[in-house]
Structures are given as structure tokens and as C-alpha cells.
Amino acid sequence: MSNQEPRDLVSNLAETLGAEHEELNQEKTAEVIAHLERVIANVPPATEFTNTRKYVVLGPLLSIVPFIMSGMWFTQGKPGVGVVGLLLGLFGLFLGYQHRNSGKTPFMRLTRTQLWADSLSAPVELADVIDFSVKADMLQTTQTLHLRPETPLPTHRAVRQVFASQAMAFKGKDPRITIMSAGLQSDGKKLDCDDMAAILDAYIQAAHAQRYLQQLRSQG
Prior knowledge:
Oligomer: single chain
Order of helices and strands: EHHEHHEEEEEEEEEH
Shape: elongated
């Protein structure tokens, strides 16, 4: 799912707080501040996310057929193919073992102003996000946050795990943060793409509102 609809709520407020700010009377200013505060209060101060335990179950299940086929091939005098089946079965077990702690420790956190991820050297300012998408396939869920061209990016470190939960920063004309994980859940509840997109959008709205609220108060 991609979020490409205009953010009328914050965009209109941004225009209001621009060149025409000096013309706002006290009543209008109070109305704008109240509106921004409602947008900010619409999300919890922080929400944490873990991956799911899909590979804890899927890994061993994927091992069953290769192990059975491997045994058949060995008994049929086909040791070469049997070894391949054995390796595939062991890979499934290894995958399940690597993900044994999945769903227990948060790897990502959203606040009303920032996104934090374990593999990033610094948080990402959500008010710098101009677009995002949340997509999923059979293997992983991928979140992509597109940032303003001038946005400074954190560095990222590689996570040594198959289908690891990790965030990566990409510089260039389209600076972006890509976050991959074996599914997503928060507070024990599994999230699909629409769920996560709605949460991201609400937090991005709150971050923009927070930034404009600070501008308004500093100018007042």
C-alpha cells in the first residue's frame, strides 16, 4: 500500500502558518493550535513493533519435505541429490532457530516526532517524510519512507540473520529509509499492510503538526 493522498490537514495548516501568519487574529491562532494539538494527541506518545514468529513455525515445516525426499534419494542410490535435500532441510531448521526470539524484542519504535530502528545510527525525523509505502510478500514486509531531498540520513549496520528485521538508509536524489521484517506486530497484535500504513500516516501527521505548532509558537 502506498500513501500518496494529499495531507490536506497539515498542508493547509502549513500554508496558513506561512506568509499569512501575521494576519491571524488571536481567535484563529487558538483554533489552529487546538487543531494541531488534536492531531498530535491522535497517536500514543510511542508505539513499538516486533516481527512475527512466522519463521519459528515455517522454518521447521519447510524441513519436512526435504528430509523425506533426502531419505528416499539416499535409499535409491542417489547420494548427490540426497545431500542437496539434506542441506535444504537443515536450512529450514537453521532458519527456525535464528528466529527463535522473534516477536519478543522490539526492533522499531515510532514516537510523535521520530522513527527509531535498531540498525540505524540515529532516529529519522518523521516530519521529513514526504511519502511512504507498506508492502508484503510471502517472505517479508517492507516499509519505505521517502524523505525530503535535503534530509540528512543516518547510517545503518547489517544484521546477520536470514530475513532479518532491519532498516537501511539510501542516499541520492530520492533519500529513503527501507525497513524489512518477517511480518509486523505491535502489543501482540499482528498488523497487515493497511494497519501499518494507517499507523505510519497518523504518526507522520502528528510529526508535521508538532513541527508547525513549534513554528507557530515561536512566531507568536
